[in-house]
Design a protein that fits this description.
heterodimer; A: mainly alpha; MetI-like fold; 73% helix; globular; B: alpha+beta; Rossmann fold; 2 domains; six-stranded mixed β-sheet; five-stranded antiparallel β-sheet; 9 helices; 20 strands
Chain lengths: 315, 371
């Protein structure tokens, strides 16, 4: 960016009507140009500060991740001798050790089953509840809605003990269905809250057109409104996936069987064990395995969220 | 194709007391193109949505043919609707949009494809059938919405301001296309618009609504020549009819310095209602200019003096917007003049209404008095 050639592009109120034609900027530079450099300077300082801040933030987030990634390929000795260097040889056996010996593979599969099940259930129930709350007037609509919103404000620690006994009485402790149901219940308030807002923004006339075309209410929901809400569904699904994948507290309380351990529990156990076994590189490999699906999913879908958002913008 | 009947149909929105549509009585003939027109909030869209089944009917009945559809769900009414924002399904291709109703009805795929392609041909959409709506222009989207209605071969077409999202030029084109398409298909159509030009050019008959009340239903010609009341007189026609309140005089009414004859019965009716004035309506093209000492001014009067404020030249003719002093008030008038003899700003014109082309309305009730 050079300051000499840029035409006055909405630099501030002082540029006035001149700014619409770059052709006469030389004359403009003489008379109205004086206050402009100051404005431009402060603007540049502003963007500079923003970019600097974002850069620092990105570093804070990325460096530990990258460090963990690189460390996962090192031997234990390298890890302590030269923590900041790249590994001399890349050791993939760390991953094999983590996957098999440290049971990360088993935990990974447990997590996939629970998270996929809970996510599917959350999205189905959440979108249906949100659609009805957003579109239909009936007595009690607000009560139900605020009950969901109140659920968001409820600290999970308060619920832990009663939740444990509820799940215990249902004989669902340390089982997939138990965890799936609890995860779903835990994710529903935010899902319903978010999707209700999203369904409200969708044009009513499209639903009406579908009704006139002969759709039943279920047809309108599944064939028209749900596909139209896809951007919202994808965003909230990603959010829920992250929350569920990284969930630690709920499985810690409700899932004590070592063979049913989820990744977060497995990693915690691993951290303790490997501390004694001195196998740090396997711990980092396990970390990377745990983080990989989250990163992959986000990379795959982040763009979809952005492009998807414009789908709804049909006039 | 069936008829459509509104029988004292009434809609009161929840929480309101005043009906949005008040005892609407309307008979729409088989194959007719009826236009509902009125200012915003007059209940025209609500009437259409009642016919579609999207609004409840709180009183009276609606029939399609002999079938009472008052409380039937929309899908059982055999209607198709074109929405103002087209309401296309954004995630479906043009072909899927148009064939959706048939798919729901369980028509087989080959049949759907055939009908969609047929409609695509009529509407010039063949090459866009596999696109998504967002990749179409406004005019094309509008045609897809029309196509969606045509493909179903419904008993009644409902159109809710389908042209108002198009630009002015396209609107005029599409207007004729829709009208001729409807004539060709012969499907009974109810069309809602706030644009009286659309109403006049498209409809077999026009129904004017105001505040939920039906004002007049008639052919465009009759609506223009014999508006039933002051509201219709002012609403239909562009520029609007000049409406001037004038005192009753001997043998007629005093219009500026001239006396224009008004039928005996009209004067009697006004007098019976206790009015000392009537409202005279004259269309801009029915105000004739009177030259100085012109023979037209038989009684020595010079008609109404109009001071020219603005002149709009349209080529073939021009519209003069001026002010005249009527009684103690100044009143804005519009006069159509020949495009070859346009007056200057500030000039004073003298105008008299052409005989036989004046409309007389009661000042108190607004009803038409002359025949």
């Amino acid at each position: 960016m050079t300051d000499t050639t840029t035409p006055p592009r909405s630099a501030g109120p002082d540029t006035g009507p001149r700014s619409d034609s770059p052709g006469d900027s030389p004359s403009g530079a003489g008379s109205g140009g004086r206050p402009r450099p100051g404005g431009r300077l402060s603007r540049r300082l502003g963007t500079g500060a923003t970019q600097g801040f974002l850069g620092v933030w990105a570093l804070l987030a990325a460096v530990p991740l990258l460090w963990a990634l690189v460390s996962a390929f090192k031997t234990n000795n390298e890890l302590f001798a030269s923590p900041w260097k790249l590994p001399a040889t890349w050791h993939f056996d760390n991953f094999v050790r983590a996957w098999t010996k440290a049971d990360i593979g088993e935990y990974f599969l447990n997590t996939v089953v629970v998270v996929v099940g809970a996510l599917a259930l959350t999205m189905l129930l959440g979108s249906m509840a949100a659609y009805v709350l957003a579109r239909f007037r009936f007595p009690g609509n607000r009560v139900v809605y605020y009950a969901f919103v109140a659920g968001m404000t409820f600290p999970v620690f308060l619920a832990l003990v009663p939740l444990f006994f509820v799940v215990k009485n249902l004989n669902l402790l340390s089982s997939y269905p138990g965890l799936i149901l609890v995860y779903t219940a835990y994710a529903l308030p935010f899902t319903v809250f978010f999707l209700t807002g999203f369904f409200r923004t969708l044009p009513t006339s499209v639903a009406e057109a579908a009704v006139i075309d002969g759709c039943s209410q279920e047809g309108v929901f599944f064939r028209i409104m749900l596909p139209m809400a896809k951007p919202g569904l994808v965003s909230v699904a990603i959010f829920n996936f992250l929350g569920m994948w990284n969930q630690y507290l709920l499985p810690l309380v409700l899932n004590s069987d070592q063979h049913k351990y989820l990744l977060s529990q497995g990693l915690a156990a691993l951290a303790v064990q490997q501390g004694y076994a001195n196998d740090w590189s396997a711990l980092f490999a396990g970390l990377v395995i745990a983080a990989l699906p989250v990163v992959a999913l986000y990379l795959a879908l982040a763009k979809k969220v952005q492009t998807g958002l414009s789908v709804g913008l049909l006039k | 194709m069936p008829t459509v009947t509104f029988d004292k149909a009434t809609r009161i929105y929840p929480g309101g007391t005043k009906p949005a549509v008040d005892a609407l009585d309307l008979d729409i003939a088989d194959g007719e193109f009826l236009v509902l027109v009125g200012p915003s909030g007059c209940g025209k869209s609500t009437s259409l949505r009642m016919l579609a089944g999207l609004e409840d009917v709180n009183g009276g009945a609606i029939r399609i043919g002999d079938r009472d559809v008052t409380h039937l769900p929309p899908k059982d009414r055999n209607i198709a609707m074109v929405f103002q924002n087209y309401a296309l399904y954004p995630h479906m291709t043009v072909a899927d949009n148009m064939g959706f109703a048939l798919k729901i009805a369980g028509v087989n795929k080959a049949e759907i494809r055939r009908k969609v392609e047929e409609a695509g041909k009529i509407l010039d959409l063949t090459e866009y059938l596999d696109r998504k709506p967002k990749a179409l222009s406004g005019g094309q989207r509008q045609r897809v919405a029309m196509g969606r209605a045509i493909v179903r071969e419904p008993q009644v077409f409902l159109m809710d301001e389908p042209l108002s999202n198009l630009d002015a030029k396209l609107r005029v084109q599409t207007r004729t296309q829709i009208a001729s398409l409807q004539r060709r298909l012969g499907i009974t159509t109810v069309y809602v618009t706030h644009d009286q030009v659309e109403a006049m050019t498209m409809g077999d008959r026009v129904a004017v609504l105001k505040d939920g009340l039906l004002q007049q239903v008639d052919t465009p010609r009759n609506m223009y020549d014999r508006p039933a009341n002051l509201f219709v007189a002012g609403f239909i026609g562009s520029p609007a009819m000049n409406l001037v309140e004038v005192p009753l005089a001997d043998g007629g009414v005093k219009f500026g310095e001239s006396v224009i004859p008004v039928s005996r019965t009209a004067v009697d009716e006004a007098a019976a209602a206790g009015d000392r004035t009537v409202t005279i309506g004259v269309r801009p093209e029915h105000l004739d200019l009177v030259g100085e000492g012109d023979a037209l001014a038989k009684d020595g009067g010079k008609g109404l003096a109009v001071t020219v404020n603005v002149v709009e030249e349209l080529g073939a003719d021009g519209y003069v917007y001026g002010t005249a002093k009527v009684g103690d008030e100044s009143k804005d008038l519009v006069v159509r003049v020949s495009g070859r003899a346009v007056p200057q700003k500030g000039e004073v014109l003298h105008v008299v209404p052409r005989s036989g082309e004046t409309h007389v309305f009661s000042t108190s009730s607004g009803a038409r008095l002359s025949d």
